[in-house]
User: Fold these one by one.
Assistant:
Number 1:
Amino acid sequence: AAPPPGEDAARKAAVGPFYLLRELPGTTELTGSTNLITHYNLEHAYNKFCGKKVKEKLSNFLPDLPGMIDLPGSHDSSSLRSLIEKPPICGSSFTPLTGAMLTGFRLHAGPLPEQCRLMHIQPPKKKNKHKHKQSRTQDPVPPETPSDSDHKKKKKKKEEDPERKRKKKEKKKKKNRHSPEHPGVGSSQASSSLR
Amino acid sequence: MAEKFDSLEEHLEKFVENIRQLGIIVSDFQPSSQTGLNQKLNFMVTGLQDIDKCRQQLHDISVPLEVFEYIDQGRNPQLYTKECLERALAKNEQVKGKIDTMKKFKSLLIQELTKVFPEDMAKYKAIRGEDPPT
């Protein structure tokens, strides 16, 4: 059978019984066996980003930026993706506002309504990690301030906690009964690195 | 390289600060603040002009779209860089492992084939010459 086109050149190396022998592919200095981080001088960058813990929130990267920047962009239509997908149609020049145009910005005196006041408020920096379970969105005016509701909430929490603990214990007992041979909860980190 | 970013960063910071001050003026407006308000409105325009001028210096800068996903979720964009480096290293280790395993397999195979077909393997080694550089 005739070999497929293009393979004749590859089979020039065939000698003797080695009719399947082909020329070896070209060799390169840079392969996957090279440490590419070192090769591209990225050790400093690697240690900087992977050596230390990088904080999760956008406000940690831009601490001086005012406003609630840690909220998703979809909440207030401020996402960058929407800007790319639907770029605003505008002119190419920036002309200063004339006196006539500025008359449109004559404002009434007095404070803004509460709903508009949130624009420049930044959430206070939370130091205590255990407080993250409370509401994340900070309302400047709490809806209810009477002390009775707090007591009720605390009582409810106390009543629920022992019930939750009992349920958890029951679930654990059931799991242990039904699966004596299984190792139980598997490890979340799979060892995949080859060295 | 960093200087062109410094200029843009400075213009952006001034622009944002101007907007922030605008917000403060507007949140509890007094008639005497009208002049200041007008100045800040015009500074918005000039600020945008300055930012627009920075485009020429940065026309060759590319930003991966995935970073925007992080920013839109309110996450630190440095996490994207971190995850890129971690994925690159993991893939590097994986490929290195494959290469090392294939090399070991090759030498083992040649070794065993030489035991069974010594003459043919001698011819094979003569054809191949030296082993390709590892």
Number 2:
Amino acid sequence: MTKDFAVPPVVFPTGGSSGGANVQQRRFAPIPFQQPPPSSSSQIPFLSFNMGSAAASSATQAGPFGGTISSSSSFGGGSPSFEDEEPLLDELGIHPDQIWKKTRSILNPFRINQTVHKDSDLSGPIFLYLALCLFQLLAGKIQFGVILGWIVVSSIFLYVVFNMLAGRNGNLNLHTCTSLVGYCLLPVVVLSAVSLFVPQGAGVVKYVLAGVFVLWSTRACSTLVVSLADGGEEHRGLIAYACFLIYTLFSLLVIF
Amino acid sequence: MYNNMGPQPGMPMHQGIPQPGMPMHPAIPQPSPFGNPFSGPGSGLIRSGLGAYGEKIFGSSSEYVQSNISRYFSDPQYYFQVNDQYVRNKLKIVLFPFLHRGHWTRISEPVGGRLSYKPPIYDINAPDLYIPLMAFGTYVVLAGLSLGLYGKFSPEALNWLFVKGMVGWFLQVMLLKISLLSLGSGEAPLLDIVAYAGYTFTGLCLAVLGKIIWGYSYYVLIPWTCLCTGVFLVKTMKPVLFAEARSYDSSRHHYLLIFVALAQFPLLIWLGNISVNWLF
């Protein structure tokens, strides 16, 4: 299963005893797919990739991967074994279970769970954006830049309108606003998927469907925005109209 | 005539009615997206409230800049103090100005030694920026819809419609501003004029909606909209003109007002004609 590379063991000077020298040493990252070594830093019988190390032979055999692994692991300070490295998704800040929970909370049009949206993230909206672009591509429209631009502009618009209406105690921040606008695009994504199957001539069906999904989006977005930021309770209808405009705009892209 | 607040504002505010724009207590203000609450009518109260920190926060140069900005660009927060009832009543006034039985002057109140107007919640004649912004957005969306129904929709066409709408708004602002300037003083706040100019988009939305629903209704709705917008602007600008003007040359005022009303016709016909190329 795991193959040891046939290289001579490289022995590094034991600087691990003193704390000062430890700072100078780069962190040694093991080669992937190898057995983790015994955790004594003095005699390391494996090939480790060090950015400025004297082991030139290791550098040549490391290839392009060496720099990346040691640069990413040189920020951490812990022990050099593979299991202690942070998983890639966590390091990127993408939490798939959270994204799935948030997406599922919007799938039910009648009861929206607001607590799950408290910490905003932008990776869910990016997935939904890519899904929308994919469905538009399947319909023959290449609109990647357009949709991204409209998401940005409409989230700025909603941010301005909400904070102006809420006055002194309005505390919606742009990150949360973009996250909410992005997540509530889910019904529009569903609309674009469904409208791929609507036959060509039946225009009225498309408009009715679009109306239903836009109303779903609007309800989700306005409920979430009002519940997650202060100061919006008296202005529900006004904010809902702003959300309605935003999602009608996106549905125009889908229908026509 | 229109009472937007349920109970009278003199009563203690238990019902969660939003506070008026001038802060009654020197709380630390939240940062707002544009402008800042330090300019505008409440600034004196805020500065006195901040006390010793006032001089530190406003360095001498920034105070100069802020006072200059506040001269040209009044506090936008004031224009967004609206609620549902205000929006409904204001839309009724803008779309059917003949039916408004009350007076058209704004209610003013003395605050901090200066005379300032009551915010839109308390005064149906005060301009607000929420309705113009939403009306503009509705116009763009409806225009896109109407383009799509004729098969000519594309995102670039929508961008051109947006630009066309902005140019139309700008032209309307210029019209009002020039008519104010030609009387010798143009000291009405810029955002007031932007708000008044933006009210034309409400009638325009109605016309475009009519065009979508039934093509021939457009030819009835556009003259109606032009007329209503003209009457609304005349009735609104009349107190502004008479307040700002120095010399009391009444015939010139009236000619200007008639000109403003007549200029609505070409402007609205141009804006209402929705096509792919944005000039005509």
